[in-house]
Amino acid sequence: MVERVHHTTFAPRRAGETVELCHSYSAGAGRDGILVCPPSPLLGGDLDNNVVRALAGAAAAAGWPVARFNYRGVGASLPAGPLPRYEYWRAVLGRGDLGPAIADGREALARSRRLFRPVAIWGYSLGAAVALALACADAPEAALALVGPPLGAHDMGALRTRSHPALVVFAAADELEPVPADLARFAPHTVRVLAGADHFFRGREAELAALVLSEMPQ
Q: Considering only CA atoms, which of 183, 133, 177 is closest in space to residue 151?
């Protein structure tokens, strides 16, 4: 019998907090948990994104406490100055600046540590680049799952030099991030390609979540 998954949302309330955080868990959840990083705010990037919610829900139902978050200016997260959400992120990401997104992920990671011990970081699309940056700088032992990583838009070269194992999942029919021709270059990491899926994994969310759970590095 699958335990009911609970979702508790925390708006930023303490000094220095910016992001809205959601804690998903089921009864009897352990202390080891997962942080899920959402995609770009320009592409439906919030904590209720279909892929993010599917990953978090499946992991929580399996007994993992999970945190997911909203980038600044999204949902109940605080805005980054006077610019509206889309104008701000269009300017920031348009110049290839991942700094604000990584800073938001870093805050979410720190706050998730008040709830559980993050042993894995999962990221989808832009969130995959954020997850990789967090794992390299803030959680070197964390297991990584990178879904639809933005190889063409952002430097993810750190994946090639990272010794701790990662899972990299591509969508075979990804219209934004085509599957690289040379998958062998990701060795020794595990690479999976979900046949027929597009970048947004529409209708394939449960299958994707099951794949990530079953293949997650330990």
A: 177
Which of the four pLDDT bands, split at 50, 70 and 90, describes residue 1?
very low
* ∠ Cα 17 133 111 (to 5°): 25
| 95-144 residue pLDDT tens | 999 999 999 999 999 999 999 999 999 999 999 999 999 999 999 999 99
Q: What CATH number should be reported for the domain holding residue 211?
A: 3.40.50.1820
Number of neighbours of residue 176 by Cβ within 10 angstroms: 14
> What are the angstrom distances between the C-alpha of 25 and each of 1, 89, 92, 175, 189?
15, 30, 33, 33, 28
Is 44 buried (19+), middle (13-18) or exposed (0-12) by CB count in 10 A? middle
Distance CA(167)–CA(147), nearest Å, equals 8
Tell which residue, 148, 104, 99, 95, has the closest CA to residue 126. Answer: 148
Q: Tokens 């027929």 identify what position?
A: 196
Q: How far apart are CA 132 and CA 127, in angstroms?
A: 8
Distances, alpha carbon 175 to alpha carbons 86, 113, 130, 169, 200, in Å = 22, 36, 21, 15, 9
Q: Which tokens is 97 given?
A: 């600046």
Angle formed by the axes of helices 126-137 and 99-112, nearest 10°: 60
Domain of residue 33 covers 5-215
Domains held by the chain: number: 1
CB 57 within 8 A of CB 144: no
Whether residue 31 contacts residue 115, with contact meaning beta carbons closer than 8 Å, is answered with: no
